[in-house]
Amino acid sequence: MGGGRGGASMSFEVDVTARRGDAVVGATFQAGEGSTVLFGPSGAGKTSLLMMIAGLLRPDTGRVRVSGQVLFDAARRINVRPEDRRAGVVFQEPRLFPHLSVRRNLLYGAASAEGLEEIATRLDIAHLLDRWPRTLSGGEARRVAIGRALLRDPDFLLLDEPLASLDRARREEAMLMIERVRDETRLPMLIVTHDPEEAERLGRQIIRM
Amino acid sequence: MGGGRGGASMSFEVDVTARRGDAVVGATFQAGEGSTVLFGPSGAGKTSLLMMIAGLLRPDTGRVRVSGQVLFDAARRINVRPEDRRAGVVFQEPRLFPHLSVRRNLLYGAASAEGLEEIATRLDIAHLLDRWPRTLSGGEARRVAIGRALLRDPDFLLLDEPLASLDRARREEAMLMIERVRDETRLPMLIVTHDPEEAERLGRQIIRM
Amino acid sequence: QRGPLVLAAASMQEALSAAADAWERKGHARPVLSFAASSALARQVAAGAPADLFISADQEWMDDLARRDLLAPGTRANLVGNRLVVVAGPEERSLAKLRGTALGQQLAAGPLAMADPDAVPSGRYGKAALERLGAWPIVAPRIVRAESVRAALALVERGAAPYGIVYLTDARLSPKLRIAGIFPHGSHPPIVYPIARLKSARNDKAEMFRKFLISAQGQQIMGRYGFTAP
Amino acid sequence: MTDELETIVRLSLLIGGVATAGTLPVAFALAWLLARGRFPGKLLLDGLVHLPLVVPPVVTGWLLLIAFAPAGPLGMLLERWFGVSILFRWTGAAVAAAMMALPLMVRAIRLSIEGVDQRLEQAARTLGAGPWRTFATITLPLALPGVLAAAMLGFARSLGEFGATITFVSNVPGETQTLPLAIYAALQRPGGEATVWKLAGISIAISLIALIASELLGRRQGRRLHVL
Amino acid sequence: MTDELETIVRLSLLIGGVATAGTLPVAFALAWLLARGRFPGKLLLDGLVHLPLVVPPVVTGWLLLIAFAPAGPLGMLLERWFGVSILFRWTGAAVAAAMMALPLMVRAIRLSIEGVDQRLEQAARTLGAGPWRTFATITLPLALPGVLAAAMLGFARSLGEFGATITFVSNVPGETQTLPLAIYAALQRPGGEATVWKLAGISIAISLIALIASELLGRRQGRRLHVL
Ligand SMILES: Nc1ncnc2c1ncn2[C@@H]1O[C@H](COP(=O)(O)OP(=O)(O)OP(=O)(O)O)[C@@H](O)[C@H]1O
Ligand SMILES: Nc1ncnc2c1ncn2[C@@H]1O[C@H](COP(=O)(O)OP(=O)(O)OP(=O)(O)O)[C@@H](O)[C@H]1O
Ligand SMILES: [Mg+2]
Ligand SMILES: [Mg+2]
């Protein structure tokens, strides 16, 4: 299916539209190596776009390629199932599994428990591992969601306002971690944020919707 | 019950503790006129504190007074019911009523439909009035939640990260509106935020937890 | 004015309905007929439910009401009688002998359908007859106890059991089945359906209808459905 | 349709409808208590509600008979307060049907109440709604799938109710003879199969209509629920 | 407890247990289809599932008899393939009980499945779980309150099942004579009340134990559910 991982090829090649209610949302862009920031007003369709790339919302038309792999192509009737896309998704709401402990939430998509400790420590959630999601504060839940997406060993990351409702210190730590992932593993990464400073720091490329 | 509204008296006089799991959260502070920002790391107990002032979480010990009115006093066994506290609460998650249209969500706590139009226009949600909550984007839902709290004609406001996940333009508009409420109606206001700039602008007083 | 309320054993359904039709044709208000198991009806009467006439499928429940002093004095009578038969599916042989081991072995070849021999009247008569004829010990383990005599009949009709013990009135109404044998008089206590007016009766036609049923005309109508004189 | 058949069908609908409508608020109250209440004897109440399911219908009918007999505790009260008796009356049949439907209805509603997110109720409280308004405008509508399911189950169960009814209020044509009792009567007659088929067909048709109605209602409702 | 009584109780537990356990997966599959599926004839399937509720139990028993009689369509298949017949056997009683319990179980599970937030299933999919793993680790556990309720309802209903059982497999002591059938037999004779009370008491005790067990299980589970 042409094109290796990472390297010189494009990370995200997206050209999709989907109907949402009366409106049609969508975007066309190509992003190079590293991380890309998605910037745009509320309701512009950022979340919808992420869902289309993750395979959770079927575009009406267009194509999605990530690292050269075709994930969706309306014309060629290709639609890779979400579980086979290997995306690490942090949703806008935490979406933690309420019947699983924090530990089992974190490990849900992980091949092994390896890495759990390090990520939990960095995200400052190590003390929460045996708690139930409903007892977490807003920021705690968000950090668990980030950890869960990273531990899934993804081929690319889709982060919908991952740092919202985090205080400075933890935001900084999380941002450092995302930067480290970006630089060390060179995973393609698409980040939604409303914070220009964050956008500046995280995104090699900024896409405005 | 002593003390008039607003004026020279203290807006919030809080001294509470509550057990949450293994930990005990709580705070002691007095805030003067105008708005107060609650600042603190994730998990510090900001949301819990707001819930105690709103009457949704019963403190184990202590007192809550707002504008001189006793809302809670463990020693005197006073615990005003949430519906009688007249708080305008914006929760950390939107908590919109899924079975009511946006319009009916907005008007749920309102005495009349007066003011709906103005607030909807300012929050840029006028075009969403006939939609169902589940079709809203993250930022849209949050703005509806802000509108709902304001339309309830509250005696004081409790805002838990009200501006999270809003883009610059809408954040600015919402902030202007909150400032206007603060200055015109002189409602006591307690705002949780992680953004120092926001804290600076909105809070006459900053409380660190 | 409404006709009297008659509580009657379920097996009387056709015969009593025909009698009620005849009564109506004579210019009276049609009696209201409620058919159910005798036990259920008797309990309703015992609880004080207001009805006019009661027709039981056996003496036992009528005795029970008599003991409770719920019957109008002097109104108890035997309405009709019935015979007990063995029915068989169309392929089964008729009963070679109606006695002893031979009878037992033939009946016990497959499941034997009959109403509960410890509870339901027809089952009790059947048990008495089989005991008297010396076939009970062989047959007992093969018995399937149906909820009512009609349910036993249905089992034979469906081929679930080759033979069944039912009333003659039931057997005659089933075109698919043959009567393989009739139990002799004296092999079981006489099968009689007693009738009585209840103390709670308020309908002034109740006594007239009761008399009509035991009159020659009433007997003749019910005789058409296979009931015998008591 | 013959007159007789029409009477049977009308009576079945009346009894089923009254039993369902009458039981719904009771079932809701019980479901609420069981879902949200904390009181001693809760398990006992739960057990009591389930009894009509566990005990064979004839026994339930028999117990109703004892209770509502003229000398029975409830029968005496009814007689004294209202001067009525429900023995052999369609009202008694409705009571029997209601009794048998109750556990099914309570369970369905309870499951839905347990599914209501209490954070939404909290939000309503801060918006000035007292417990009653919160209940009427938030909890009840959000539990509506369960209420609809309960109504459907209750009506269907009432339509099929036989054992308790015949034991309690007999099989009186025009008063307590519903479809199942008429079916029973037909089944007692060898060769009555044709009537059984016809009556069963009518039962099924009625319940299918009720089912479709409840599904369509539920579908309209369902679209709105379920995402914060 | 006399030997006879012990046999009856053991048989009731066996039949109730087998009927419940056997129906649970079927009920879950049907509930799933009805909650999530979109296919033509869905309403029809829904209606079919409800039939045993609407039609009087004797008719259900009678239809089972027709189907499983030696010459009946299912009876012939069973005979040909497995060389068995379930007529007059406890297995037949379990089939009758299962049939009657099915609609109740489907409804309970369906309500719970409809209450599962599909956004959580989406999250599981992005974490690499295929539809089956998502089902087993997310949907099923989140629908557990409904499954528990279904098991409870099914078991209770089986324990009380009378009409279909006696019509279908008769009352064969030691084989198909469950508690309700024994109770019915006792009710047929004047003076049988004492036995009725005793047997009904045993039924109630068994179901209360089952109820408490399911409540406790559900409570453990409930604590975890219900907040994102
Ligand atoms: N089911 C739906 N019916 C109608 N409109 C919908 C539906 N789902 C989404 N929308 C609309 O589609 C638009 C895009 O939504 P989306 O969630 O992608 O926005 P977003 O860019 O993520 O916004 P935010 O920054 O507020 O999260 C919004 O205007 C939203 O109201
Ligand atoms: N039911 C509970 N059991 C155990 N711990 C709990 C429970 N509820 C809350 N907590 C803990 O109480 C602390 C305070 O929570 P709270 O939601 O008030 O924090 P917060 O300051 O609002 O944090 P954030 O900024 O992340 O929203 C957190 O550490 C949380 O984990
Ligand atoms: Mg969004
Ligand atoms: Mg918080």
In short:
The complex is a heteropentamer, with 2 copies of chain A (209 residues), 1 copy of chain C (230 residues) and 2 copies of chain D (228 residues). With 209 residues, chain A is of the alpha/beta class. Helices cover 31% and strands 25% of the residues of chain A.
Give the topology, please.
The complex is a heteropentamer, with two copies of chain A (209 residues), one copy of chain C (230 residues) and two copies of chain D (228 residues).
Chain A: E1 12-20, E2 23-31, E3 35-39, H1 46-54, E4 61-66, E5 69-73, E6 78-79, H2 82-85, E7 87-90, H3 102-107, H4 116-122, H5 138-151, E8 156-160, H6 168-185, E9 189-192, H7 196-202, E10 205-208
Chain C: E1 5-9, H1 13-25, E2 32-36, H2 38-47, E3 53-55, H3 59-67, E4 77-82, E5 84-88, H4 100-107, E6 112-115, H5 121-132, H6 136-139, E7 143-146, H7 149-157, E8 163-167, H8 168-173, E9 178-182, E10 191-197, H9 206-214, H10 216-223
Parallel strand pairs in C: 1-2, 1-3, 6-7, 6-8
Antiparallel strand pairs in C: 3-10, 4-10, 5-8, 5-9
Helix pairs in contact in C: 1-10, 2-3
Chain D: H1 3-36, H2 42-54, H3 57-68, H4 73-82, H5 90-114, H6 118-126, H7 131-142, H8 144-160, H9 163-169, H10 179-187, H11 193-222
Helix pairs in contact in D: 1-5, 1-8, 2-5, 3-9, 5-8, 5-9, 6-7, 8-11, 10-11
